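Batch manifest, entry 17 of 40.
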Amino acid sequence: MRIRTILNGQKAGNPLLHEAIATIRQHHFFALDVRIAYLPEDLPALIRECADDGIDRIVAGGGDGTLNGVLNAMMALEEAKRPELAILPLGTANDFATAAEIPLDPYDALLMAINGESRPVDVGCVNARYFLNVASGGFGAQVTTETPPELKSILGGGAYALTGILKLFSFTPVRGTLRIGEYRFEGSSFATAVCNGRQAGGGMLLSPEACIDDGLLDIALFTLEPLSIPSELSPPSATLFGGMPFRKILRASEVEFTPEEPQMRRINLDGEPYEADSFRFRILPGALRLVLPDTCPMLKENTP
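Output type: structure tokens
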């Protein structure tokens, strides 16, 4: 199997990463191939090069944003030429990797990336963009967007919590219309999250029961308005999760959202900003083969 690691240039100087790569090359006799993306704009060319070179598995080294950039570049390839994907978590929050129980230590993560088994997983799509973890709008998206990089480098995932506290008392709920087939919700919410994965924003659990291989999206609405959820759109315990009655969760393969206010026209896809006048979300079942631990809690087979 031919494996190539694509590293976020800002993370390439990580001493633990250098040590992990050296150990694998010297003691595991694996000639680990590495390329560096100094800018996000470098990723499409690097991923196309992987396909042209017959690479079987790409290891995305960086945070959730790097993972999103690699994913979008991979989804632009013909499915027959699309390599498998593994994750080397090097970011501030590493929300997807954490929820999937992918090792956060670079050496352990690289060993899994090289030796682990890949599985077909779903990919989320909004308009013409893709996401693996969560698309969020409202309060959570504002926190993610406005958390300074310098604060993230000092506090790690705690930077999102601090920014959230500072923004909380000045945030006003925003209005929009959500449609799932014939179902319609029109009202205000503090945040909306369309989830393939389970958490975002530095560990905020948005949809505790979401699975990445069930062919469905979990839509979490954080609203104080009454909301009747039809049984066919309601996952188990959808209305009340951990004493949070304002979190309502619906489950569907497609959902449309039209914001009424300008601040809701900007959302985050795995932490990366995206703007549109309206959003059509859908799930692409089994569109990507992803290396995961056997015990990954987001796989259907491991969900009670």
